[in-house]
Design goal:
The protein has about 170 residues and is an all-beta fold. Helices cover about 0% and strands about 30% of the residues.
Length: about 170
């Protein structure tokens, strides 16, 4: 654990997790190993990070987010409350020929509340996933995804900027 971390009640962090400076957790967080977490990361209440995950710096995972194994999250990423990322295209099937693969999320991505990302999708830099969207395929950089299943559109000009927070 880095300097200046705040770990709240009933949080469980497994041995083998590496975290940078100023990690903050809510209550009832679970972080399994191996996991590498950058600096200034917020992990909200009730969030689970299931190990074999890489998380960059200045990332906000709001409450009740699920991050599966084999997931990569870039820098300056926001993931809204209740978002679910998945890593198994065929749950409990095809175990001899299929390996789990979580999403890859580039820098400056915003993912809205209750969005769902299917296994192995790549979310391009600066993209914005609307609340409740279901992402079933790769998303090009600086795109907007809305609906179920997710419809990919050009990102509106007023959203074409890097993610910034008043406090990381």
């Amino acid at each position: 654990m880095g300097n200046g971390c705040t770990i709240r009640a009933f949080t469980v962090i497994y041995a083998g997790v590496r975290a940078g400076d100023h990690l903050r957790t809510g209550h009832h967080v679970l972080i399994r190993s191996p996991c590498a977490i950058g600096d200034q990361v917020l992990v909200g209440t009730g969030t689970t990070i299931d190990g074999q995950v890489e998380i960059g710096s200045r990332v906000k995972l709001e409450s009740h987010v699920y991050i599966p194994t084999h997931t990569r999250i870039g820098n300056q990423v926001f993931i809204g409350p209740g978002a679910v990322l998945t890593n198994d295209r065929y749950p409990l099937r095809q175990r001899q020929s299929y390996a789990p693969a979580g999403p890859t999320i580039a820098d400056n991505v915003t993912i809205g509340a209750r969005a769902v990302l299917l296994p192995g999708v790549s979310i391009g830099e600066g993209s914005f996933i609307a609340a409740g969207a279901v992402v079933t395929r790769d998303v090009p950089p600086w795109s907007l995804v809305v609906g179920t299943p997710g419809r990919i559109e050009p990102l509106p000009d007023n959203l074409r900027e890097e993610n910034r927070a008043l406090r990381w």
